[in-house]
Amino acid sequence: MHTDAQPTAPVIEFRDVEKQFDDKTVLKDLSFTVERGERVTLIGPSGSGKTTILRLVMTLAELTGGYIFIGGEPLVYEQRNGKRVPVSKRQQKQLTTRIGMVFQQFNLFPNMTVLENIIEAPIHVLGIAKRDAIERAHQLLEQVGLPDKADSHPTALSGGQQQRVAIARALAMDPEILLLDEVTSALDPEVVVDVLQVLRDVAATTDVTMLIVTHEMSFARDVSHRVMMLDGGKIIESADPETIFTNPSHERTQQFLSAVLRDA
Fold this sequence. Notes:
Elements (H helix, E strand, L loop, with lengths): L11 E10 L2 E11 L4 E5 L6 H8 L7 E6 L2 E2 L2 E4 L2 E4 L2 H8 L2 E4 L11 H11 L5 H14 L15 H13 L5 E5 L7 H17 L3 E5 L3 H7 L2 E6 L2 E6 L1 H6 L4 H13 L1
Parallel strand pairs: 3-10, 3-11, 8-9, 9-10
Antiparallel strand pairs: 1-2, 1-4, 4-5, 6-7, 11-12
Helix pairs in contact: 3-4, 3-5, 4-5, 5-6
């Protein structure tokens, strides 16, 4: 595991974060923290800013205002001499190597085998020896239930298998933080169970911090320590899963959950 400059600092902190797309404000004055080893799920209607939060942590979206800290260190901007200034590219890269993300659409390299997909970043980004990276990749393929698929190409795999490879690829970087963005929404219903079981196992057997966006409410209830309800780019409610799912205090949360659970 990576060492952290400030072990007592939250693993993720959003401080007064703002995100605009053109003239539309998606996130406004958003502040929250995620502690080490905590698993936090973001729920809320489409367009409430859930995926944008993950993309900002992964630096795949530009931060309009405010600050994001990873282990107490500024990710994109910092305060220097009373001004908000960008951090160095080197610092940003060092921090993002501590973060893994599993996307809705798998994002595997089609021209590479499953094994090559998994070992690419550990070798080229972390500088791990190829032999060690290959050994770890085989362990991870065993863990996600695909020990015989190392030499296959992604196009030869089902959607559920591709997503399990994508999980293995993210874990190969030994991340402190794992971001999960609607990882089952592009899958056929019958393979969703397999993918969620892999993630349940990861949650049960590692101390990786997870920030999750999902519409699978039973999964959110099972793996989360905390659930945050977003609406209109703000967190309107944050509580343990039992409270959120059985006794939400905000009327908007009640409406959202009754609609989602009815559809399910």
